[in-house]
């Protein structure tokens, strides 16, 4: 039952995001993740990007750090951490994380994060 409730809040959060209500989107998606943390990578990416959109680099870093720990084979957490570093204008750290993305892909660059 918690899984269904979690999906409800995550979908509700995505709808808020589409309507431009980012604060409500963050709140709902966080609530959904608290109910069931076994969500796909893309849910965490949405939450991290929402934090970036509201200029909360610290919370975005927390989300992307958790992604790196939870999904170590995915480059999504590393690309998020690179974006956080870019927002802070910490270019050396940003390059380190972008390099990690390349290593995770073994040269097979995925355009969704390269565009970032």
Description:
The protein has about 120 residues and is mainly alpha-helical. It folds into two domains: about 1-40, no CATH class; about 40-115, Tetratricopeptide repeat domain (Serine Threonine Protein Phosphatase 5, Tetratricopeptide repeat, Alpha Horseshoe), CATH 1.25.40.10. About 75% of the residues lie in helices and about 0% in strands. The protein has seven helices and no strands. It has helices spanning about 1-20, 20-35, 40-55, 55-70, 75-85, 90-105, 110-115. Helix 3 (about 40-55) runs antiparallel to helix 4 and helix 5 packs antiparallel against helix 6 (about 90-105). The radius of gyration is 14 Å and the shape is globular.
What attributes characterize this protein structure?
0% strand; 7 helices; single chain; 2 domains; mainly alpha; 116 residues; Serine Threonine Protein Phosphatase 5, Tetratricopeptide repeat
Describe this structure in a few short sentences.
This protein has about 120 residues and is mainly α. About 75% of the residues lie in helices and about 0% in strands. Helix 1 runs antiparallel to helix 2 (about 20-35) and helix 2 (about 20-35) packs antiparallel against helix 3.
Which helices and strands occur, and which strands form pairs?
Layout: H1 2-18, H2 22-35, H3 41-53, H4 57-70, H5 76-87, H6 91-105, H7 111-114
CATH topology annotation of the largest domain: Serine Threonine Protein Phosphatase 5, Tetratricopeptide repeat
- Tally of distinct domains: 2
- Quantity of strands, as a count: 0
- Going by CATH, the architecture of the largest domain would be Alpha Horseshoe
Radius of gyration: 14 Å
State the low-pLDDT regions, or none. Answer: none
Helix content: over 70%
Kindly name the structural category.
Answer: mainly alpha
Kindly report the name of the CATH homologous superfamily of the largest domain. Tetratricopeptide repeat domain
The CATH class label of the largest domain is: Mainly Alpha
| Helix-strand sequence | HHHHHHH
Average of per-residue pLDDT values: 88
Largest sheet: none
Task: Estimate the global geometry from the Cα principal axes.
Answer: globular
Number of separate helices: 7
């Amino acid at each position: 039952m918690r899984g269904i409730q979690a999906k409800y809040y995550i979908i509700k959060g995505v709808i808020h995001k589409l309507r431009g209500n980012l604060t409500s989107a963050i709140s709902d998606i966080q609530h959904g993740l608290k109910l069931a943390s076994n969500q796909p990578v893309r849910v965490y990416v949405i939450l991290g990007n929402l934090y970036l959109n509201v200029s909360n680099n610290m919370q975005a870093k927390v989300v992307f750090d958790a992604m790196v720990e939870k999904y170590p084979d995915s480059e999504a957490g590393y690309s998020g951490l690179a974006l956080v570093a870019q927002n802070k204008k910490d270019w050396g750290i940003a390059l380190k994380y972008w390099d990690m993305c390349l290593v995770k892909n073994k040269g097979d660059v995925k355009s969704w994060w390269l565009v970032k």
